[in-house]
Amino acid sequence: MPDEDHFDAVVIGSGFGGSVVAQRLVEAGEEVLVLERGQPHAPGSFARTPYEMRRNFWAPHAGLYGMYDVWGFDRLDVVLASGLGGGSLIYANVMLRKSERTFVREEPGVDGYEYWPVTREELDPHYDRVEELFEEPERYPYKQGEPYSTTAKTKAMLEVGEDIGKTRRPRLAVRFSAESGGAAKPGRPIPGSEKENLHGVPRSTCRLCGECDVGCNYGSKSTLDLTCLSAVWKAANGTIRTCCEVKSITPAATRNGYLVGYEHHVKASAAHAADLTAPGTDRHAVVSADKVILAAGAIGSPRLLLENRAALPRLGDSLGSRLSANGDYFAWIRDCRDEHGKPRYLHPSNGPVITTSIHVDDRKARYGRGYYLQDGGAPVLGDWAWQTLELPRDMLGTRKLLVQRLLDWARRRPDARRSQLLAALFGEAASSAAMMPVLGMGRDIPNGQMTIGQGGLRLDWSEEPSSDYYEDVRDSLERLAGKLGGKLVTTGLDRRHRAITVHPVGGCAMSDDPRRGVVDSYGQVHGHPGLYVADGSVMPGPVGANPSLTIAALADRFAGAMISTGEG
Ligand SMILES: Cc1cc2nc3c(=O)[nH]c(=O)nc-3n(C[C@H](O)[C@H](O)[C@H](O)COP(=O)(O)OP(=O)(O)OC[C@H]3O[C@@H](n4cnc5c(N)ncnc54)[C@H](O)[C@@H]3O)c2cc1C
Ligand code: SF4
């Protein structure tokens, strides 16, 4: 193996776990290679039209190398990202710490128990540090009369939320002011930003377009490619290769460390800068490293380890177990009305996707498993889609004007003015504007089991053990809908016993006991020194809150241990 193919560390995946570890190891002077299967996505390049969206999915076997990686398991659908920066490209920016009392230590036994080998106290310094890496997230700067106070959904949530739980504006990894400590103003250029990021594109402050989950075209989100990965890319000892999908991890025969085999998606990488892709046009390549950090996410990492079990024989039986959907519950509150029956407009397309969070903690939750309820948003395109639902009612609403026009025509005094009629066709626009998507998440029971079978990855998961938890979340969402004068419309969980999660965690759970977990409390795989997992899969149970900040904080802890022990 020539020298240039050997690194101190290879990081597989560039989401919250992988990017933080890569930056820390680079800062410590190690030669680091980041291998990411997806493409780089610069601000300004995110898909917006149906034409662009049709190719924006990850299915390399079908020639698709886009950003959304969607799985439909037996009873659980999972939405993930593929791209440089992982989930940060499509996430809603919420940076919450895991609540202190949810670092539970339950007795091992039945499926789905939780035992956290770390405490909140131990994680706090790491939370502090990663917040710095993510440009010091700040609370949504909602203040009456100030530029960001136009978001009606924020106002409504702050008005009614306290009746349900502790209501706050969570920290968001979004730039609201062009300079640190400066005034928050939408759409302002961030000076010098084009020199700071690996795409070389200018960024600006948030302009409230509600497009966070389809990629921010203004560079306002502090995504990982614009922060940690740009630091790695700038360092002489950091290398990033996108469109490189890892397929194999095997212990090196002649030295300590591992060989990592990957497939280079040459067709997809052709469009990208040479310093962001693998050299040459070989479809298959192997690199070696003293240590390997697997950070391919809660589906990607267990899957890779399951597929490579034969080469890594000391992997324990707990691999693939204890997957949690983080209690995700998606719904909409529709047709909100005030006490006079007038639409209560919430304008979901105005603002970042999430601006507020209602927390019902374990002590207040009906079944002892706490949760969060958050406002949702969607691009303007969503408003138009919802509005079509109202069309029959709106058409009916124009009947008086149409009759008048007919009478005018019959009396031979036709009125050529059409503006009033066209305006009437929009009716109250209540379907699109007096509504809001809402998201619940919290402490479900982590009972998913991943296996590799015929046809690939399988997941056995059921909502049944968590049905009390889901019932409590739904009841609170009903109360929230009632307080906003609207109706709750839920997704399939009630009727079809299917859930959707955007926050899967678990599968390579942490435990200091090798019989009960895949990695120790510093991320090292039991029985395989120098092999680490650092992503959402190491969670021994649901995070409860939105998990990214906790994933990043744990990765920071793991990286610290790798550096101080010089393991590998
Ligand atoms: C719509 C949406 C909104 C969200 N909003 C929030 C939010 O507001 N706050 C929050 O905390 N969380 C949010 N999340 C969840 C958050 O994105 C994830 O929890 C987080 O990204 C997980 O981090 P990770 O490091 O575990 O993995 P990921 O971020 O998923 O990163 C894994 C990376 O590994 C790559 N990869 C996978 N397999 C391979 C392979 N074989 N070879 C090379 N690379 C590979 C993937 O392409 C990906 O880039 C949201 C998620 C979605 C989908
Ligand atoms: S609301 Fe729009 S501008 Fe603001 S962070 Fe989200 S996508 Fe970017």
What does this structure look like?
With 568 residues, this protein is of the alpha+beta class. The chain has two domains: 515 residues, FAD/NAD(P)-binding domain (3-Layer(bba) Sandwich); 39 residues, no CATH class. The chain contains 15 helices and 23 strands. Strand 1, helix 1 and strand 2 form a beta-alpha-beta unit. It is globular, with a radius of gyration of 25 Å. The relative contact order is 0.19. The site of iron/sulfur cluster (SF4) has 13 residues, from loops.
This entry's quaternary arrangement is single chain
CATH evolutionary superfamily of the largest domain: FAD/NAD(P)-binding domain
**What's the tally of helices?**
15
Mean pLDDT: 95
Q: What distance separates the N and C termini?
A: 18 Å
Strand count, sense and barrel status of the largest sheet are: 7 strands, mixed
The total domain count is 2
What is the CATH class name of the largest domain? Answer: Alpha Beta
Strand % is 15-25%
What is the radius of gyration?
25 Å
CATH architecture of the largest domain: 3-Layer(bba) Sandwich
Stretches with pLDDT under 50, minimum 5 residues = none
| List of distinct ligands in this structure | flavin-adenine dinucleotide, iron/sulfur cluster
